[in-house]
Every structure is written in structure tokens, then in C-alpha cells.
UniProtKB/TrEMBL annotation:
Gene3D superfamilies per UniProt: Protein of unknown function (DUF541), domain 1 (3.30.110.170), Protein of unknown function (DUF541), domain 2 (3.30.70.2970)
Lineage per the UniProt record: Bacteria, Bacillati, Actinomycetota, Actinomycetes, Micromonosporales
Pfam families: SIMPL
InterPro entries documented for this protein: 26kDa_periplasmic_antigen, SIMPL/DUF541
Annotated TM spans: none
Protein name, UniProt field: SIMPL domain-containing protein
GO BP: DNA damage response
Protein source organism: Micromonospora taraxaci
Length: 215
């Protein structure tokens, strides 16, 4: 694109740390038995117990997704003779109420042959924090252009080009694992500290400036 007069090119950046909006964790129910049908029956019962607890959590659970169902035979090293069957099913749970998160995770971990891992802290894909960071990056680019122009005794006159140049945001996470054993009794209290999320944005911008004063 042809332009009249001098041009300044700058990079604008913004970096923010904001509280997370979502927490995800995984609940895995397992079963093992020499008999395949017994393994499947136990696995179904334990998965159902997990569902009952999640059903009773009310609005604490915003979303849950069941996947990663595995059933596999255990064989002897020398041959294909099956000595046991292993089964597992994992449910990913999304929570927005962090005050009840620790209690819910420990209640799930207190179930027989259930493992809980997480949480992973995130922002919503449409979080206002992303928009605010992009706006701040544009403001930073304009400020830098004006500073360069001022140093030359000039002023910014027009925007020629603006392009996004920021890296993708990376969710922060903390991982903990709890293996349930059905010990009975009330689950202990667990307080979790939500990890701040890093939001970054960067732009490349080109501006025309008035004639510099170089005297």
C-alpha cells in the first residue's frame, strides 16, 4: 500500500493476570476382577455412584462429560491366557462455584476405587478479559507510535495497518490426585487457591506521521 510521508511501525503488547472463571477436574472409576462380567458390573456400579454424587451437587457443576471408557484383559507374559480384566471410565467435570470445589472433589475421591485429578483453572473462551487485553495492546501500540513521533518532532496522522500478533493464551493449572478407598466417614475439608490466568495480546501497527523536525 503506497503512502505519502514517513511511516512508523510498532508492536503493541498487553499482559494481564486475572482470576479464573472455570475449574475442570477428572473423575476416574476403576474395577478389576478375574471375571469380565464382574469387572463390568463393578465398573458400572462405581460409575453410577459418581453420577449420583454429581447429580446431588446442584448448580456447583456447570458441565460434565463422560469419556475414555477402557476395558482390557491382563494376560500372562508367556501367552494369551487372561488372568484378570481391568476397566475404567473417566468423567470430566466443569465447575464455576469454587467455594464448593474442594469439598466436591474429596467427596468423589472418598468413593471406592475412584481417582480424582485436577483442578485445571481456565477462562471462558468468550471472557471479557481477552477483549480488554486486545484493546490494551492497541492502546500500547498507539502510545509507542506517538512517543516515536514526538521524539522526531512529529505527530501521528493516520493508521495504515493493524494486525494481530499475539500468542495464544495458555491456561494455568494445578494438578492433584486423590485415590478413593471407601474409608467411610465424612470427607476432610480441602481449600483450593485458584491460580490467576495469564492473558496476553500483541499487535503490529503501522502509522503515518507528519514531517519530522530534524534540526
Amino acid at each position: 500500500m503506497a503512502t505519502d510521508g514517513p511511516v512508523v511501525q510498532v508492536r503493541g503488547e498487553a499482559y494481564r493476570e486475572v482470576p479464573p472463571e472455570l475449574a475442570r477436574f477428572a473423575v476416574t472409576a476403576t474395577a478389576r476382577d478375574r471375571d469380565r462380567e464382574a469387572t463390568l458390573t463393578r465398573l458400572a456400579e462405581r460409575a453410577a455412584a459418581v453420577r449420583v454424587l454429581l447429580d446431588g451437587s446442584g448448580p456447583t457443576v456447570a458441565r460434565r462429560e463422560t469419556g475414555d471408557l477402557r476395558v482390557r484383559p491382563e494376560t500372562r507374559r508367556s501367552g494369551e491366557r487372561v488372568v484378570a480384566w481391568h476397566g475404567s471410565v473417566t468423567t470430566t467435570v466443569t465447575v464455576t462455584d469454587f467455594t464448593a470445589l474442594g469439598e466436591l472433589m474429596l467427596r468423589l475421591a472418598d468413593q471406592d476405587q475412584v481417582e480424582v485429578a485436577g483442578p485445571w483453572w481456565e477462562l471462558r473462551p468468550d471472557s471479557p478479559a481477552h477483549r480488554e487485553a486486545r484493546h490494551a495492546a492497541i492502546g500500547d501500540a498507539l502510545l509507542r507510535a506517538r512517543e516515536y513521533a514526538e521524539a522526531l518532532g512529529a505527530r501521528v496522522t493516520a493508521l495504515i495497518e493493524l494486525a494481530d500478533a499475539g500468542p495464544a493464551d495458555r491456561p494455568m493449572f494445578a494438578r492433584a490426585a486423590f485415590a478413593g478407598g471407601g474409608a467411610g466417614g465424612g470427607a476432610p475439608e480441602l481449600e483450593l487457591d485458584p491460580q490467576p490466568q495469564t492473558v496476553q495480546a500483541a499487535v503490529q501497527a503501522r502509522f503515518t506521521i507528519s514531517a519530522p523536525v530534524l534540526d
